[in-house]
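Title: Comparing notes on inverse folding

I've been comparing how different people in this forum approach sequence design from structure. To keep things fair, I'm posting one structure and asking everyone to reply with a full sequence. Here's the target:
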């Protein structure tokens, strides 16, 4: 029996997609990569995933796991050989259990992040992972890329939020590691091997995740700043003044927000005059466990001191939930505004916070010297040292012109990242986009150890080939 027929027999013909039915699964969100596949399959249980993987192993067929297909590095897109099977986890979308005494939630990999947040909220708890794609990205994809988002400063990234996993191995076995334990010193941490591995070692099918108490109150403010140096100093003051209550600190170059309000006129900056044209903005969020009055008093005290010190030139403090959402919507619309303006050269880097201002000053200068008038689109999660340091077209430059310079731009930016003791990937992963860059910035020993792990867990090399590691 052919593999296609065997998969149809296992899953039903309606869940083995080919031709036009498979098209949306074969291109990444940024439209940078498009592949072909033997089929796209949609199992609805862990057992079906395991059986499908075993069939693929028998036929020597590669498997490309895919969640919400919102990744930014081509990590869930097949190559153009047409030999792979894309395995979508979209039907694995059940909330299996919520344990409020243990503050955990167990969900399947295809659960949309927003649905997990909602399930937690209905149980009176908070699941804090939050990012712009939360209405369409899935928990499996979040874990496979070790997603970060806007609240890493307080709660950590996806790895810190996961206590246990269920995984289908590259051999089609099911590892049930769904333990809700915060302490388990019984050998190697297999969970952390699979988190961040981008489906190259196995397929995450479910996870037990940490929950937290809902904050009693929160305060949000958009602050206008004269420099990125002021932003770094402001973060230091905010961490001292708010401690663990500081849940978000986002940095945005002024051009980013001005582009948002130009392209999306329904949004507006809460400033007039010079403040609206500030070169930098910061978005702060404080979560408080006592009361609204206590939160606002602390918030205004710390911001007042920052204004008096000359770090903040203007401030807009949200007076309602609607105003807070509007401020966050400005921040979350930056990637959409970028997409409206065409493809750019994107970087997802992390830098020690103490070096971020120096990195931006130096790298902006190097790029302008080499490629005059390209636009530096800089924004990100300053609180955890993660910048989305993107480069957009200069006036009169075509999209193709800019993309032809991609490798030269990568060289400048990535070398500067390493000079400032940083990493070329903070939260988006490696995928196809940075696979060939990785050997320039990882030591031979690190790469060798990674390849040994890959060989041990996926000896046939069938799990998401061509991603993360060079063949």
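Reply #1:
Here's my take.
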């Amino acid at each position: 029996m052919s593999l296609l027929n065997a998969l149809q027999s296992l899953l039903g013909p309606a869940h083995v997609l080919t031709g036009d039915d498979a098209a949306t699964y074969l291109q990444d969100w940024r439209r940078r990569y498009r592949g072909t596949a033997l089929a796209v399959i949609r199992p609805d249980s862990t057992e079906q995933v395991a059986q499908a993987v075993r069939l693929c192993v028998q036929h020597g067929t590669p498997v490309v796991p895919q969640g919400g297909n919102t990744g930014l590095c081509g990590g869930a897109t097949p190559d153009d050989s047409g030999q792979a099977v894309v395995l979508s986890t979209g039907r694995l979308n059940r909330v299996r259990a919520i344990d409020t005494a243990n503050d955990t939630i167990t969900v399947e990999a295809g659960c949309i992040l927003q649905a997990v947040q909602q399930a937690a909220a209905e149980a009176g708890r908070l699941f804090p992972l939050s990012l712009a794609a939360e209405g369409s990205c899935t928990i499996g994809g979040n874990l496979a890329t070790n997603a970060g988002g806007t609240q890493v400063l307080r709660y950590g990234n996806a790895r810190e939020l996961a206590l246990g996993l269920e995984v289908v191995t590259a051999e089609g076995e099911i590892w049930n590691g769904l333990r809700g334990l915060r302490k388990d010193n019984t050998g190697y941490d297999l969970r952390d091997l699979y988190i961040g591995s981008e489906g190259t070692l196995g397929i995450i099918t479910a996870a037990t995740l940490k929950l937290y108490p809902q904050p009693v109150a929160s305060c949000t403010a958009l602050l206008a700043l004269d420099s990125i140096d002021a932003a770094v100093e402001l973060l230091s003051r905010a961490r001292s003044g708010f401690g663990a209550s500081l849940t978000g600190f986002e940095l945005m170059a002024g051009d980013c927000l001005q582009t948002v309000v130009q392209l999306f006129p329904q949004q507006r900056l809460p400033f007039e005059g010079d403040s609206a044209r500030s070169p930098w903005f910061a978005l702060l969020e404080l979560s408080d466990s006592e009361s609204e009055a206590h939160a606002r008093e602390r918030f205004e005290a710390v911001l007042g001191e920052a204004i008096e010190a000359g770090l903040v030139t203007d401030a807009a403090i949200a007076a309602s939930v609607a105003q807070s959402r509007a401020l966050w919507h400005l921040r979350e619309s930056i990637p959409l505004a970028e997409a409206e303006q065409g493809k750019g050269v994107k970087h997802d880097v992390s830098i020690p916070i103490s070096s971020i201002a120096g990195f931006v000053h130096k790298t902006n200068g190097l790029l302008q010297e080499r490629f005059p008038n390209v636009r530096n689109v800089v924004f990100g999660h300053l609180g955890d040292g993660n910048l989305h340091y993107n480069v957009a077209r200069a006036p009169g430059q075509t999209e193709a012109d800019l993309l032809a310079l991609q490798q030269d731009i990568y060289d400048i930016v990535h070398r500067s990242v390493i000079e400032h003791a940083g990493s070329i990937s903070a939260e988006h992963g490696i995928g196809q986009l940075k696979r060939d860059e990785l050997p320039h910035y990882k030591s031979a020993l690190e790469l060798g150890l990674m390849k040994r792990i890959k060989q041990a867990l996926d000896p046939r090399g069938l799990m998401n080939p061509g991603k993360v590691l060079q063949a």
